[in-house]
Design brief:
alpha+beta, seven-stranded mixed β-sheet, 16 helices
Amino acid sequence: MAKYVASIDQGTTSTRCMIFDEGGTVIAADQREHEQIFPKPGWVEHNPDEIWQRTQGVIQGALQKANLRVADLVAAGITNQRETTVVWNKRTGKPVYNAVVWQDTRTAQLVDRLAGEGGQDRFRSKVGLPLATYFSGPKIRWILDKVNGVREQAEAGEIIFGNIDTFVAWWLTGGPDGGVHITDVSNASRTMLMNLETLDWDDEILEIMGVPWAMLPQIRSSSEIYAECRGVLAGVPLAGILGDQQAATVGQACYETGEAKNTYGTGNFMLINTGRKLVQSQSGLLTTPCYKFGANDVVWALEGSIAVTGSLVQWLSDNLGIIRSAPEVEELALRVRDNGGMYIVPAFSGLFAPYWRSDARGVMVGLTRYINKSHIARAALEATAYQTREVVDAMEQDSGVALKALKVDGGMVYNDTLMQFQADMLGVPVVRPKVAETTALGAAYAAGLATGYWQNTDEMRANWGVDKTWEPRMSADERESLYAGWKKAVTRTFDWIEGESDTSSAPSAS
């Protein structure tokens, strides 16, 4: 009888369960959105209880669609939105506060204070990251400081922390009744609290950040049997955990040094495999574990993180109402030949790679009476390609290797207009694989490797195939002229925020 692997993909806007066969083919999938909560400008939250409910629902939905039983699964893996921070009571499972999402900027003042005592790169040599609101450590500190009673309970070991992978894994394996409190190296590296050399929590940074060790999960590899699931996946080994962008890199079969992928989702995230070599970026990129399979050495990556790409299209729909749904943006953009001289720089959460400017905010520039909503739609798509070009430039500077082609995945890769413009802006082919939702596939691979469903990366690479390729068509002169306009537009976003309040009416811990 055929057996399958389940992958739980808990993303920024939705949760999905996908079931894969040995060839990496999707057998069934179920997906459900969750609420985006915006209490104040710059604040972004999720309801952790809602996420757990959605997780259970999509697992059941995918099994039903495939007409499978839980016994037909040999393993389950988790991939997740990284940096999104949950703190909860380990006796009851009740969160002490909403999940503080990776896009959230409420910790700007704390980050500035920490940087004032050693610069933005104060911890970079240890953790591979600049000080930024993006990462989990400052978010944990905010919850400890702002929610009454939480710090005392955390120091006593009653309150625990996790990124979303940890929260979901804890519930899947029993929750208050023996659930394992774990994370993998890829997610731990996004807290700003893990030492890259030791692959464990760093005592000095914990003390500076004010985070008690007692609340932190155990750091494990990305591919091993952690525990058997209970509840909706009762008896299935939980055997793989990867942060979403590392999972996409695994799903894209980027197993050799120099191979790169770019994921087009809520934000964009480009990773290049640097092999067993830990490379510290000089160009605004992040140094991060790509994956660690069992007892094998860590494979490292450089990452370029872009906060707002797909969510800019969602903003056109939800906030401006110029489109009704995301797919309409391409139809609208195709009504005009170009952007009409305008640019949108969507620094809604500041600017991530390669700038790391939390003081930046979004702008539309180059507006004239000629501009209409079609130009705005085109400029929104082009913003994704320009931001990716900036990350590619930084990667080439750090690695010394020129990009020959770009593997792409995520929801936006079905937008032909964007993908063609991306190829034009990079001057190299853009390649979409047959399975474009490689994030879920990567988590399935990690779980399947740990249980022997796949024997090695060669078997996984054999599953990868090309679906479509876009070749560059734009002249070099036009490319560089447009890009120069973008770089000029980016400078208009700087220094907008001169100080942000992080006061809150957070409730007392229960």
